[in-house]
Amino acid sequence: MPGKNRKISANVRRRAARVRLLLMDVDGTLTDGHVYLVSQADGTALEMKCFNAQDGQGLTLAAQAGLRTGVISGRESPAMRRRAKESRIEFVCEGTAVKIPAYEDLLRKTHLSEEQVGYIGDDLPDLPVMRRVGFSVAVANAVPEVMQAAHHVTQRAGGDGAVREVIEIILKAQGKWESLISKAKA
Amino acid sequence: MPGKNRKISANVRRRAARVRLLLMDVDGTLTDGHVYLVSQADGTALEMKCFNAQDGQGLTLAAQAGLRTGVISGRESPAMRRRAKESRIEFVCEGTAVKIPAYEDLLRKTHLSEEQVGYIGDDLPDLPVMRRVGFSVAVANAVPEVMQAAHHVTQRAGGDGAVREVIEIILKAQGKWESLISKAKA
Amino acid sequence: MPGKNRKISANVRRRAARVRLLLMDVDGTLTDGHVYLVSQADGTALEMKCFNAQDGQGLTLAAQAGLRTGVISGRESPAMRRRAKESRIEFVCEGTAVKIPAYEDLLRKTHLSEEQVGYIGDDLPDLPVMRRVGFSVAVANAVPEVMQAAHHVTQRAGGDGAVREVIEIILKAQGKWESLISKAKA
Amino acid sequence: MPGKNRKISANVRRRAARVRLLLMDVDGTLTDGHVYLVSQADGTALEMKCFNAQDGQGLTLAAQAGLRTGVISGRESPAMRRRAKESRIEFVCEGTAVKIPAYEDLLRKTHLSEEQVGYIGDDLPDLPVMRRVGFSVAVANAVPEVMQAAHHVTQRAGGDGAVREVIEIILKAQGKWESLISKAKA
């Protein structure tokens, strides 16, 4: 369960309260880290990704609350683009083995400072962006180097609700969570 | 194992005994909460859902015992419709981001009172229906707000037998389980 | 790991030693109990099954050792038929909601007595056959009624090596395992 | 997490330090041991394999560090070939029920001694190669016979980061890991 029995430190709350744009890695962060490939009769293979329904709900809540979101991925994927549309993810940057140029491009587009950006990742290519943003988060299944570099480590793994957990931390730190829940109950 | 070593409270048994129509959320309740998307060569993506064989068996037992069933989902899915046919689920309401209108429509169609309806869910969009039905159930992987709102929380997660577990509770409370088992053994 | 740290009772060994034909349920026994459905653009859905590589290896060893194998399933599936061919499963009986007629047909075809047949299952439709065969096995994820009816319960779940585990028990009880391993090492 | 809280013995480090070519089994080693089959409308079935994103990242790091890699598999698979290209795996030997001829062919092609070869496997067909290479590794989900034959057993299962774990052991033993991490942080 997202955030159950978990104390969030004052430092994490302060950092989360400033986030206006939440960026995410895809494989291992928004998905469960599996790369599924389906062999085709013509000798090619199609890719499948595994997303999480509660993450999708969280991303929709983020959009309702005015928190902007985006993904930066080294791989290109129609699956990711469809999921972005369904979950109201605003920015989809794909096919960038190196993530800093895409990150800097988003800073320019959104006119936000680095303090206002959050980033969730699991592996080495996420490190350069994580070292610059105001709120960096490692998922529970991240490699040790990414855990050490993060301001916060989630309880749940990528594709198992880690993104939902981070969105709740941010929206709670910003005092927006309770009114979303009240609206949801109606 | 469904229901193993588990005491069901008298209140839950009383509520379960009245249920004539069992409604369910789909993603995270009748499935395992994963949203699988398969990239296609033309740039689109197809969706895959992951159901549970023992849930399917339970839904078939429910139909044999005269317990009516239905799903209410925010997403549209040929996979869900095929699964409904295989598992003898009577009502399939899809593409309804807000679930109350579909719920009220089913009340009218079935001429049942709210006390006679059960509902199983895992996330915030399930709350409005759960607050009205006679027997509301949260799956083991539900978000905290849904767990708090439920009359009962299952031991098994969505897509891992949670629906089967609820069907057994209902059919046992109604004294119908034993004769189904005897028939199955023959 | 199949068979690790596990004492097999003398009764189970005696029953296993007599088995000449090992029959299996499919969903939840030879697969992991998930029913995956892939939505298609034309509104239909295709089914995917999840088998286990070590089970496949075990079934191939069984064939090498002269142990005959077969599946009896309520569903029809090209996936199952391909897997049967790859794993050298001799008999594939599909689309039989009731399993006894298929079972009796196999008895006639193989000229075996019921004592010489083993069966692995997980759910209620498996009970009638399990009550007749000489060696009945429930997988670790079986429902309680099936566990109670079985001569043996596996440590591993269906689709996670349960079938391999049973094949090892049988071939060890028949004194055939060691020579298979020696041959494999060469 | 790969390698977390784990002492690697001096013997394993010495063997790992010599490896110039890392060979791997596919099903159960580079994948999670599941064999997914998708039924098609024409009665055939397509295969899907489940790889791991962190393994893929590790294989790319191996290529950057000059460690050559290859797979030897009994099955043929367009999915494996696409994954090999994405992850910079140099050698793909498929459809070889017996693995020794493919192994000896790779020795000739690479002009390496057996001491300079590592192999990761999970099941009986891996034993003959494992008994010859300088550094043999069993994944956490390997069968007992393979575990006993291995110089090292990984903490993580196949398809869950076992290959990444082995690549880290090798590159750390060769003193190449730290500079890769420094480069990744930049």
Describe the structure.
Four copies of one chain form a homotetramer. Chain A is α/β, with parallel strands linked by helices and 186 residues long. Chain A has one domain: HAD superfamily/HAD-like (Rossmann fold, 3-Layer(aba) Sandwich). In chain A, 38% of the residues lie in helices and 20% in strands. The first copy, chain A, contains eight helices and eight strands, in the order αβββαβαβαβαβαβαα. Chain A has helices at 10-17, 53-64, 78-86, 100-110, 127-130, 144-149, 162-173, 177-185; strands at 21-24, 34-39, 45-52, 68-72, 91-93, 117-121, 135-138, 152-153. A six-stranded parallel beta sheet of chain A has the order 5-4-1-6-7-8, with helices on both faces. Chains in contact: A-B, A-D, B-C, C-D. The interface between A and D is medium-sized, with 30 and 33 residues.
Greatest contact between two chains: A-B, 34 and 31 residues
Number of domains of chain A: 1
* Radius of gyration of chain A from CA coordinates: 16 Å
* Intertermini distance of chain A: 22 Å
Notable characteristics:
homotetramer; 186 residues; alpha/beta; Rossmann fold; six-stranded parallel sheet; two-stranded antiparallel ribbon; 8 helices; 8 strands; globular
